[in-house]
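User: Could you check the structure of this?
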Amino acid sequence: MPILALYSGLLGLILIYLSYNVVGNRKKFEVGVGDGGNHDLRRAIRVHGNFTEYVPIALILLAVFETNQGSSLVAHIAGITLVVGRLLHAHGLGKTVKASSSRVLGVLLTWIVIVGLAGFNIYQFVANQLLS
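Assistant: Sure, the predicted structure tokens are below.
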């Protein structure tokens, strides 16, 4: 699954950056567990948490799509869109807890990838069952 390898690698690096940001904030504000009531640390934790909530299912859907010989072009479009969406969301949420254009666009792109790949995977299953 070379396409999955590329995008899971890129997203893995983003995850490490987000994790490093949480650790840096923990050190800066001297908070070992939780957020210590600090708004900056709380935001960093949510950026990291949101990433870890959405990316695994998107990568599973991409893996299934690629395994079932889905279009390489569609897989790359989904992968690029997911990476861009997650970067935009992290940037937007990292700046403010209020709605921002990058945060909204980021989550929208992420949802489009998840819904799109879910739809493609369901379609592939149904089409294969009808052809069997």
